[in-house]
Design brief:
about 190 residues; alpha+beta; four-stranded antiparallel sheet; 2 helices; about 30% helix; about 30% strand
Amino acid sequence: MKANTRNQEFQDDKVAAIGIGAMIVFIALILVAAVAAAVIIQTAEALQQNAQQTGDDTADNMAGKVMINAAYVDGTTGYKLFVRLAPGSEPAPTNAITYQLMCPGTLPVEGAVGNVELMDGSGVAVATMQPSTGYTMILSGTAAGGLDCTAATVGTGSSVQAYIHVGSGGTTFETLSLGATAAGSKVV
């Protein structure tokens, strides 16, 4: 038997090594791109949800407000307001509507609005205000503890800042300017 006398030299196949290295880099780039895409998609979803929530909150605050058409001194008890709900509002239960009167020199007078009635003069009290319907409501100028923010106490030429809060909706701000303190004197 003859020994194998052929000289077999192994050659380094550098082309194959370069191909495997390129494939590893390519797979790494795909993984990095997938992670980056996931982060971008999550960020976009979070921003969209925040924008939606902000829009909903703004709509609730703007639509859930009372619009004051006119206000008058109501005898010695406080102020009578002619109001309606802002456009786009949902019906508002009157027991969820509160007010604050800020008068010069005293603590704020706070309470629930009183005597919410249809503005048609029928004197019909309502438990829930409906959009696009006119109402009258009373803001008492007195509160427990002797707080007094009535027109007679505040005086002619003064002003009272009124805030009306509608449940979980918005807040209406109006300055009641007292040109006169007699019952029926217009303040808005």
